[in-house]
């Protein structure tokens, strides 16, 4: 049965918001005393909290489905629904949170850090909150929006100062047990350590943590053995301690060849951007098991060559504790120097929160091709949330949605991108709400004298210009002068007289 898990996928569902209430207050002698429907409560968030008392993701491996409480619905007499309780999930310090695509969302490297992994839904407003001077008794309320639902991935990367690396059965577990109070499993067969073990070491006034990483073999960076699965736990370490087995009985193995293999695997492992490559970090060599006579002789033979490569070498024995004090103080020097360097580094850049510009649009319109003509898709947090809050079985609620969208400026933007009355408009991604768009008359509607169902404002502008009106005036004057001259000619020809009476 597994006792340590450092990777898990969580299936989360945040609480949904409660629906608003439609209610009218009724009292004696006041059968319709006004709307009094309360608001729905917000749902509960799902929050990840970095906890130093948690060391494994095993609990989430066994129960990966987590959900928070829904918000309560609003009630009459101005009673709001209850807010759903937040669900806090403790995770080990050093947990990396990623989305389904593997994109890193947050790195919980400090105890107490919090991250809202699944935001809750928003409660809907009751008809009392929707009342205004123009809408005194709303017959509708807003619906609560659903909470976020999806999957996230958790990856644990051990936060330790020193990592013990080496071949299986090199004595790493025995060493961490001898240097600290950790009690890992120790046996005489390879791959005894199936998960990293942490131990706290005190050397004088310096306290630091040591991680025992499962044994590496050749090809670990390509997935052989358990190395690739646990090499991520070395990423955050300040220094590396190579534990070399001087008493191995395997043919073809010796401390020098073991070190070359480990260095090759560490060099092949990619670290995240911004971190120091593994081989560029401080490294020490521990020649282990010198309590065995042959091992002591072998350690003396290879020590000179290792020191020639630039390493500090310590001959130790986890059984007799020989050389452990000198090794612990040497590691403390490296850790203390790294801490001093980090303290001298400039502080992290400040996070500046800037307000959104007042003229910034809360939506965008994307024109998509369709078999029946272009489709205009409205995208944005506000319009999509408003659609989710609308009860489409209530005509008044649909009209309220149309008013909100018009005030947001969607109609002007639809005109700008080429939409015409009757165009297909979709709000939201995927199979969202589809409308046949009809522009809303927002001003001077009572002055329109066009037939019902028509709007002269949408017709072409046929108003004549000043020059056209002048030409028309002169044409009329010329026509009248020509008519008078024609009458005079007929009179002179005797076709009629003024005393004819006709």
UniProtKB/TrEMBL annotation:
Cofactor(s) the record lists: Mg(2+)
Keyword annotations: Cytoplasm, GTP-binding, Hydrolase, Magnesium, Metal-binding, Nucleotide-binding
Domain Obg: 2-159
Domain OCT, first and last residues per copy: 355-439
Residues annotated as domain OBG-type G: 160-336
InterPro entries attached to this UniProt entry: G_OBG, GTP-bd, GTP-bd_Obg/CgtA, GTP-bd_prot_GTP1/OBG_C_sf, GTP1-OBG_CS, GTP1_OBG_dom, GTP1_OBG_dom_sf, OBG_GTPase
Annotated Basic and acidic residues bias: 76-86
Subcellular location: Cytoplasm
Residues the record lists as binding GTP: 166-173, 191-195, 212-215, 288-291, 317-319
Pfam family name, one: GTP1_OBG
PROSITE patterns with a match to the protein in the record: G_OBG, GTP1_OBG, OBG, OCT
Keyword check for tRNA-binding: no
Positions that bind Mg(2+): 173, 193
Record-listed E.C. numbers: 3.6.5.-
CDD domains named among the record's database cross-references: Obg
Segments of this protein annotated with the region Disordered: 63-87
Family, per entry: Belongs to the TRAFAC class OBG-HflX-like GTPase superfamily. OBG GTPase family.
Subunit architecture: Monomer.
Function: An essential GTPase which binds GTP, GDP and possibly (p)ppGpp with moderate affinity, with high nucleotide exchange rates and a fairly low GTP hydrolysis rate. Plays a role in control of the cell cycle, stress response, ribosome biogenesis and in those bacteria that undergo differentiation, in morphogenesis control.
Protein name: GTPase Obg
Native source organism of the sequence: Lysobacter korlensis
Upper lineage: Bacteria, Pseudomonadati, Pseudomonadota, Gammaproteobacteria, Lysobacterales
């Amino acid at each position: 049965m597994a006792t340590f898990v450092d990777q898990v996928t969580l299936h989360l569902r945040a609480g949904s918001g409660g629906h608003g209430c439609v209610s009218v207050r009724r009292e004696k002698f006041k059968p319709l005393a006004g709307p009094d429907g309360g608001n729905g409560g917000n749902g509960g968030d799902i929050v990840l909290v970095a906890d130093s008392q948690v060391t494994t993701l095993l609990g989430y491996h066994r129960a990966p489905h987590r959900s928070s409480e829904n918000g309560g619905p609003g009630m009459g007499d101005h009673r709001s629904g209850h807010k759903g309780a937040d669900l806090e999930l403790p995770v080990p310090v050093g947990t990396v949170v990623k989305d389904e695509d593997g994109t890193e969302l947050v790195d919980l490297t400090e105890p107490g850090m919090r991250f809202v992994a699944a935001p809750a839904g928003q409660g809907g407003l009751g008809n009392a909150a929707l009342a205004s001077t123009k809408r005194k008794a709303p017959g509708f309320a807003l619906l609560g929006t659903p909470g976020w639902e999806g999957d996230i991935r958790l990856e644990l990367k051990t936060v330790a100062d020193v990592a013990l690396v080496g071949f299986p059965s090199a004595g790493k577990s025995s060493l961490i047990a001898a240097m600290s109070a950790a009690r890992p499993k120790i046996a005489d067969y390879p791959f005894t350590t199936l998960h990293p073990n942490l131990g706290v070491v005190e050397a004088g006034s310096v306290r630091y943590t040591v991680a025992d990483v499962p044994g590496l073999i050749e090809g670990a960076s390509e997935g052989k053995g358990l190395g690739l699965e646990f090499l991520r736990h070395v990423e955050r370490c300040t220094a590396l301690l190579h534990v070399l087995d001087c008493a191995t009985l395997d043919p073809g193995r010796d401390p020098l060849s073991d070190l070359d293999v480990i260095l090759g695997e560490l060099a092949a492992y990619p670290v995240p951007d911004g971190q120091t490559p593994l081989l560029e970090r401080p490294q020490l060599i521990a020649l282990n098991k010198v309590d065995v006579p042959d091992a002591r002789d072998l350690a003396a033979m290879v020590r000179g060559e290792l020191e020639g490569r630039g390493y500090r070498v310590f001959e130790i024995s986890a059984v007799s504790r020989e050389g452990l004090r000198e090794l612990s103080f040497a590691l403390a020097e490296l850790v203390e120097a790294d801490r001093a360097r980090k303290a001298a580094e400039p502080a992290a850049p400040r996070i500046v929160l800037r307000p959104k510009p007042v003229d910034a649009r809360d939506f965008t319109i994307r024109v998509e091709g369709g078999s029946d003509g272009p489709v205009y898709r409205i995208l944005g947090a506000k319009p999509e949330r408003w659609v989710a809050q609308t009860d489409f079985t209530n005509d008044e609620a649909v009209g309220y949605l149309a008013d909100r969208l018009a005030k947001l400026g969607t109609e002007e933007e639809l005109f700008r991108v080429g939409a015409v009355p009757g165009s297909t408009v979709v709000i939201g991604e995927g199979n969202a709400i589809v409308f046949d768009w009809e522009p809303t008359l927002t001003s001077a509607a009572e002055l329109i004298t066009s037939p019902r169902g028509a709007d002269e404002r949408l017709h072409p502008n046929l108003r004549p210009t000043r020059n056209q009106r002048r030409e028309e005036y002169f044409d009329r004057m010329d026509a009248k002068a020509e008519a008078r001259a024609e009458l005079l000619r007929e009179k002179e020809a005797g076709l009629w007289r003024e005393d004819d009476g006709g």
